[in-house]
């Protein structure tokens, strides 16, 4: 005799399972498959793994169900780390890039509705336009009109296929990368230094830091100014949002100015807060900052000080607390770990953090892995001056070398260590005047932005064959 649990307790029991267990449960019979495939369960896994917000819909993600998205994206993430060099297609796309740093993905994780790969990148060109490029086809898909003033900064919001630009006249424009004309335009009083377009639980917004030390927040899609907050005496060099956009980290590289963290909701809901809620991090001369992936309240900072070039790392937990009097909230920082490293032969340049409380950093000749308390875990040595740049995300670490090649590492699932995956070599000889200015990565492609003075610049692209 077959026994059936009622729907409510059945869903409750399944809510305690992990994704792998749910996939196994779904194979028992049709009824169990129906329960184990509900959007409520799989949406929870997606929120936990990728920190999506309520406003992020299945339509925006280009998928029919949360389960489909979770399975497809997880499979693609693993495919890239398990791939071999011969699994990639290499191509060079000639693009007249105006500013090498102004290149960003505009296609999300690179997955389409059918689970296949499609990577699209947005760049500012030397013709003072912005354009989008399908990396798999190697073709341009959209070009804006030529702009009257030099485009200084670009940001993208891949979930909405939107780009944001600021020119030297401090004019900010919003583009949907389909229409010829901008969706919206506004003006900043001071020159822009940092720019981010993000999804928050209150909707999509643009954050801009200017040279006067102000943080401005504009609403998408009309670029209505939501708030303007004076943060520093001087300009805002760095602007980083936490994984779920609860916090905004701001810094100015100045010996007398300490970095600050703001509570995002207090910047967006100005009628509910008498003043923006923030805290100051006691860490002068901050060189780098990195929010811990998949942990909303933890950030690690790096500084290099003194003639001996001592490198210091400090990890803070940021908390929101209620004051006993007046029922107001305040932001409080807690330094939970720190350590210092003596001078290396090469100065530490880049750093990143995994969700397992592990810091990865690089000198010109080695890749170093430490716990946030300073325990040395791994070293990957290379030749002197070989490492050019380090790129870190929740799944991978990409080391870019001076000869144009790159090496991909993956974070082990059940340990704090890195696993070396493969090296992708440059397909042609690198001349001394050619430089790798930026390395970008999504689930189905890796891109290097190359400049070749005085000749043209180009995109050096690797795309996964099984994602094309």
Explain this structure.
With 468 residues, this protein is mainly β. The chain has a domain at 7-77: Monooxygenase. It has helices spanning 7-14, 19-25, 30-36, 39-50, 58-61, 66-82, 264-268; strands at residues 88-94, 103-105, 120-124, 130-134, 139-143, 151-157, 162-167, 171-175, 184-187, 192-200, 203-210, 214-219, 225-230, 238-241, 247-251, 260-263, 278-280, 286-291, 298-305, 310-322, 329-341, 350-354, 358-362, 366-371, 376-381, 387-392, 396-401, 406-411, 418-424, 434-441, 445-452, 458-464. The strands form 8 sheets. Strands 1-32-31-30 form a 4-stranded antiparallel sheet, with no helix packed on it. Strand 3 (120-124) and strand 4 (130-134) form a beta hairpin. Helix 4 crosses helix 6. The mean pLDDT is 85.
CATH topology of one domain: Monooxygenase
CATH structural architecture of one domain: Up-down Bundle
Major β-sheet annotation: 4 strands, antiparallel
Number of strands: 32
Spans of at least 5 consecutive residues with low confidence: none
State Rg: 23 Å
Alpha plus pi helix count: 7
Whole-number average pLDDT? 85
The helix content is 10-25%
Task: Specify the overall morphology.
Answer: globular
**CATH class term of one domain:** Mainly Alpha
SS-derived structural category: mainly beta
Physical arrangement of strands within the biggest beta sheet: 1-32-31-30
Q: What portion of residues belong to β-strands?
A: 35-45%
Distance between the termini: 49 Å
């Amino acid at each position: 005799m077959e026994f059936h649990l009622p729907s409510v307790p059945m869903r409750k029991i399944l809510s305690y399972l992990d994704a792998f267990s749910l996939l196994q449960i779904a194979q028992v019979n049709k009824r169990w498959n129906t329960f184990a495939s509900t959007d409520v369960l799989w949406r929870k896994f997606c929120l936990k793994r990728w920190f999506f917000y309520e406003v992020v819909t299945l339509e925006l993600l280009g998928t029919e169900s949360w389960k489909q998205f979770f399975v497809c994206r997880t499979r693609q993430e693993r495919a890239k780390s398990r791939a071999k060099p011969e699994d990639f297609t290499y191509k060079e796309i000639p693009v007249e890039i105006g500013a090498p740093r102004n290149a960003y993905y505009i296609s999300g994780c690179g997955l389409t509705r059918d689970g296949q790969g499609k990577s699209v990148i947005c760049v500012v060109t030397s013709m003072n336009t912005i354009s989008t490029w399908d990396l798999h086809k190697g073709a341009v898909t959209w070009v804006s009109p030529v702009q009257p003033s030099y485009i200084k900064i670009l940001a993208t919001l891949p979930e909405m296929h939107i780009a944001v630009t600021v020119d030297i006249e401090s004019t900010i424009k919003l583009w949907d990368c389909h229409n010829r004309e901008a969706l919206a335009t506004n003006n900043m009083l001071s020159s822009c230094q940092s720019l981010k377009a993000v999804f928050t639980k209150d909707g999509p917004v643009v954050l801009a830091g200017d040279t006067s030390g102000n943080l401005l927040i504009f609403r998408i899609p009309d670029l209505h100014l939501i708030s303007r907050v004076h943060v520093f005496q001087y300009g805002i060099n760095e602007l980083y949002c936490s994984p779920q956009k609860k916090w905004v980290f701001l810094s100015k590289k100045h010996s007398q100015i300490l970095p600050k963290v703001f509570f995002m909701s207090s910047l967006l809901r100005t009628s509910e807060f008498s003043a923006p809620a923030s805290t100051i991090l006691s860490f002068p001369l901050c060189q780098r900052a990195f929010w811990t992936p998949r942990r909303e309240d933890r950030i690690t900072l790096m500084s290099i000080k003194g003639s001996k070039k001592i490198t210091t790392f400090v990890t803070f937990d940021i908390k929101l607390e209620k004051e006993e009097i007046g029922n107001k909230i305040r932001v409080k920082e807690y330094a939970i770990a720190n350590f210092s490293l003596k001078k290396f032969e090469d100065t530490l340049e880049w750093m990143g953090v995994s969700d397992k409380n592990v810091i990865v950093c690089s000198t010109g000749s080695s890749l170093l892995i430490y716990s946030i308390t300073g325990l040395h875990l791994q070293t990957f040595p290379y030749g002197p001056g070989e490492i050019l740049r380090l790129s870190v995300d929740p799944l991978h670490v990409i080391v870019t070398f001076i000869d144009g090649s790159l090496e991909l590492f993956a974070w082990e699932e059940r340990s704090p260590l890195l696993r070396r995956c493969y090296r992708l070599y440059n397909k042609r000889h690198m001349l001394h005047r050619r430089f790798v200015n930026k390395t970008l990565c999504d689930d189905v492609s890796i891109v290097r932005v190359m400049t070749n003075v005085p000749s043209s610049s180009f995109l050096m692209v690797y795309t996964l064959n099984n994602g094309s």
